[in-house]
From TrEMBL:
The protein, known as: MarR family protein
SMART domains: HTH_MARR
Record-annotated HTH marR-type domain positions: 5-143
Listed InterPro entries: HTH_MarR-typ (IPR000835), WH-like_DNA-bd_sf (IPR036388), WH_DNA-bd_sf (IPR036390)
Natural source organism: Intestinimonas butyriciproducens
Coiled-coil positions: none
């Protein structure tokens, strides 16, 4: 058990680091003006629109676990780069909604392709039963992180 604990810890640290590095490298070829953090913000804005979720600045900030000020700074930069647009809500002029541009959609598609390729690579080596066990284990890991954040 102790050996498994150390090996699993090392694996998680290395995999997390490797995913971030590889994700950054895959992005650099097509969208070198974006950081990974900016890309994840774009992804959140695209997902909010695609899933008809709340795309107000406050909701996006909460989903990204950043302050309103941090989000404002990031969105301003991404607006200047042509990736996001801010618009006042038609019904509630106090609310600001954030929308992706076509340029943002293109970056999000490159990012999504990276994730699809990563998942496909994992799944091709696992049986259905092994994939179910992995999904259950990663679900527990996700719950752990969410619990830590909400605490």
């Amino acid at each position: 058990m102790k050996g498994n604990r150390a090996e699993l810890n090392r694996f998680l640290v290395e995999v997390f680091d490797e995913i971030l590095k590889t994700e950054e490298e895959s992005l650099a070829g097509s969208f070198s003006d974006l950081s990974l953090r900016e890309l994840h913000l774009i992804e959140e804005v695209c997902r909010a629109e695609d899933e008809a979720r709340d795309n107000r600045a406050t909701a996006i900030a909460a989903a990204q676990r950043v302050t309103a000020g941090t989000l404002t700074t990031a969105v301003s930069l991404l607006e200047r780069k042509g990736y996001l647009e801010r618009r006042r809500d038609e019904r509630d002029r106090r609310a600001v909604r954030i929308w992706p541009t076509e340029k943002a959609r293109a970056a999000d598609q490159v990012h999504a392709a990276f994730h699809r390729e990563m998942v496909d690579e994992i799944l091709k080596t696992l049986s259905d039963q092994e994939a179910q066990v992995l999904v259950r284990a990663l679900g527990s890991l996700t719950a752990f992180f969410r619990e830590k954040y909400e605490a």
